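Subject: Protein entry, chain in single-letter code together with its fold tokens

Area: Proteins and the way their chains fold up in space.

Attached in line: The record itself begins immediately under this heading.
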Amino acid sequence: MAMAHDVDARSPVSLRLLLVEDDPEVAAMYRLRLEMDGFVVELASDGESGLRAATENPPDLVFLDLRLPRMGGLELLVALRAVEATRSLPVVILTAYDEPESRRQGAELGALDYLVKSQHTPSDVAGRVVSWVVDPTSPKR
């Protein structure tokens, strides 16, 4: 995936992130933390607007909730993988639900990680962004 900036593990250098999250309070909480850490964050509140945002101007990384209006998160991930411009887009599932079947499907569709919101603070998530973008094949857990 082509990135707008050279990235190393020391600096976020304005990485562009897309957060697809339908809960406005959760979205605001994660956006605040990510922006405080120097990332540029775009929000989408449903699956269709998330797909549109990702395909029109692919970000460096997508955080994807699973239970979304107008198109579910896994359906959105399938759609991203079907388009050349977003086929290899790094995606991290960030959900409230720890469901083995969703984990399996996310992994099969190439999600880099599956995070349950109750188990990861916004600071934890922000601290891992650069590693997901710089070396998406390295273990994150």
